[in-house]
Amino acid sequence: MSGPLLALRAALIGLFAADTGLARLMGGRVRIHDEPPPGAPPVYALFGPAEMRDDSVDGALRHRHSHALILVARPGSARTALDAADRMAALVAQSPLALAGHTLVLLRAAGIAVHRDERSGEARTTLMLEAVTETP
């Protein structure tokens, strides 16, 4: 059942990696990881919590998704992560995505939150995405 979730993640990576403006905001290249890379300098993104639920209707196999992308800011500058999250949200709004083996019905940025990590003190911005996919 994780197929649509992984297909959406792969499409997002492709979308974001191709954008030179986002790469510039992230220090020269787009870096999206599952876990914080040891010793990597910010700005980078982490896949945060994701959820996929069955939303089938009229015989169509549908899934409703919620995904969080967490952007880690440069020390002393929460804005660096916020600017990158804003760019990602704009890309999601402007660019139709093709998913391998699935159809993307809806993709939108549902919100942005800025917070500070309690352990490290790093400023972070979370971009919340919502999507609906169908499987043929």
Structure description:
The structure is a single chain. A five-stranded mixed sheet has the order 1-2-3-5-4, with helices on one face. The chain has helices at residues 3-17, 20-25, 78-94, and strands at 32-33, 44-54, 61-72, 103-116, 123-135. It has three helices and five strands, in the order H-H-E-E-E-H-E-E. The longest helix has 17 residues, at 78-94. With 136 residues, it is an alpha+beta fold. Helices cover 28% and strands 38% of the residues. It is elongated and about 50 Å long.
SSE blueprint and pairings:
Layout: H1 3-17, H2 20-25, E1 32-33, E2 44-54, E3 61-72, H3 78-94, E4 103-116, E5 123-135
Tally of helical runs: 3
The largest beta-sheet arranges its strands as: 1-2-3-5-4
Give the mean pLDDT. 94
> Largest sheet, if any?
5 strands, mixed
Succession of helices and strands: HHEEEHEE
How large, in whole angstroms, is the Cα Rg?
15 Å
Number of strands: 5
Distance between the termini: 13 Å
The helix fraction, in percent, is: 25-40%
Provide the structure class. alpha+beta
Sum up the overall morphology in one term.
Answer: elongated
Low-confidence stretches: none
Beta-strand residue fraction: 35-45%
